[in-house]
């Protein structure tokens, strides 16, 4: 079975579910989405077992290719597995257009499957754009609400600025080798090598929310909870880190690659941890922690252990998806994402217990699986210098602080109070319990024979462990938990000092991002006005001229008109009779059809020059859909 089936299966099932799921209730819709993802997993297993590579030749130099790799195999399984509980939760939790949301989640899975199996930058660019389109659509799900379109545009444009790096890298690779294959990166040298590596790092940093792009995750919080859960765990934000881990051997040819990646990763891990520690909005706290955790994965890649970064991606995906579902249940209960309004331990004891498991894993407390993978990152850093390892351990201590703060404020015990929100539904509880159970099961990684056998099966090299580092790291985790418990006892609803407000707001980065987005939109609007004046004005004047001529003829000398009618009456009568008998379809239907088509095409052509990004993505989606349909047909002929 060809590898193309892996991304095509969720796309086709998304279309089928969206078209046929109109009459399905929430539970039936969730179960249908679960079946679709199980079929995706089955197709993934069959395809990975029977095919190592697949390609589609567009021309001699343009070839789309898929290829198995260690990183690609891990994510090809991880993405649909994490999406399974999230899709069930989405169908039940979201009341506004759940069918559309679930279909977009499935399409998102397909786009990510194409991305992780791509074997060249050309295929990667196609998948990169699809991932961006799906994430934009998910963030904009409640587009009628005030402020959400602006947030979606901000997240879209900031990541798009970084995405330009991937185009630059593809151009440099093609200029140097005449192709786009990942393997060709090893043949680059000199300036083209540096340009290609810099472009890939830029694109990866934007997608994985590393500094200075981190704050776009706050704008992405405008999307519904299931979208955030999938986006932060195994798809959009994971794409950049996956790309670095996948191409690390080729990218390390640039001597500055590893130091830069380590610097960005550690800086983001520390800064993101501080932001999360002072953030009062539940989803934004989790968003900042996502940026920080991916920063730790960047440190592992830069230290020469990309496999360790992938293992931490697995453990982080399960716990972070679960914590976003927790935030959604808490918000539904109190109608607010503000942690100061929660303390729902008495009202939601079952959810509080599951959240505790996930928060302890995020804190890095042994023997949970996320603690093991975090310790592996610290050991990887120690291979370079103990100071870098201590920096990772410090970031781990900060993660314990904000994880404790989230759990204590969201589910601490408070006096019983009335709440108008509904209790969690059966499907929501099952989804959350499944992710918490997976987090618990990953604790087996602490058993050395098991972790070593897993690493050997995946071809991952594990770093040498250091007892002193583990003692220091776990001590900092304990300190972080203690500080978190202490500050939540003191925390009140009163206004925070300015410095705390600056920390919680990503040091002013959201304002910078908003300024960039506003500037781009103003430029787009000016281009639209220029288009109206330069290109549309002549057509408008021409149309007015025709109308003026027609009015002039209509108000002309009646005697001339009467004479003309007398001369041509019989001729026109004959033509009218012939048209009524045989030529109606040609003389009337065809011109009208062409006119309507031209009018519709003109409106779309103008819309694409007006800065309305949804028109761009609608056409991209339609074009890519047709392209992959031809691709599927060609694969079986």
Basic shape: globular
The radius of gyration computed from the alpha-carbon positions, rounded to a whole number of angstroms, is 29 Å
Structural class: mainly alpha
Number-wise, the strands total 2
Continuous helix count: 23
Largest sheet: 2 strands, antiparallel
Query: Which regions contain 5 or more consecutive residues with pLDDT less than 50?
Result: 556-565, 604-623, 626-637
Alpha-carbon distance between the termini?
Answer: 14 Å
Strand order of the largest sheet: 1-2
Mean pLDDT: 83
In terms of DSSP E residues, the strand content is under 5%
Key phrases:
single chain, mainly alpha, 2 strands, 2% strand, disordered C terminus, 637 residues
Task: Outline the structure in words.
Helix content is 76%, strand content 2%. It contains 23 helices and 2 strands. A two-stranded antiparallel sheet has the order 1-2. A hairpin with a 5-residue loop joins β1 (53-57) and β2. α2 packs parallel to α4 (98-117) and α5 packs antiparallel against α6 (148-177). It is globular and about 90 Å long.
Short description:
With 637 residues, the protein is mostly helical. The chain has 23 helices and two strands. A two-stranded antiparallel sheet has the order 1-2.
Which helices and strands occur, and which strands form pairs?
Layout: H1 5-20, H2 26-50, E1 53-57, E2 63-67, H3 70-93, H4 98-117, H5 121-139, H6 148-177, H7 190-207, H8 216-220, H9 225-233, H10 236-251, H11 257-277, H12 282-302, H13 306-334, H14 349-363, H15 369-382, H16 386-411, H17 426-441, H18 448-458, H19 467-490, H20 498-504, H21 509-554, H22 558-607, H23 613-636
Antiparallel strand pairs: 1-2
Helix pairs in contact: 1-2, 1-4, 2-3, 2-4, 3-4, 3-9, 3-13, 3-17, 4-5, 5-6, 6-7, 6-21, 7-10, 9-13, 10-12, 10-13, 11-12, 11-16, 12-13, 12-15, 12-16, 13-14, 13-15, 13-17, 14-16, 14-17, 15-16, 16-19
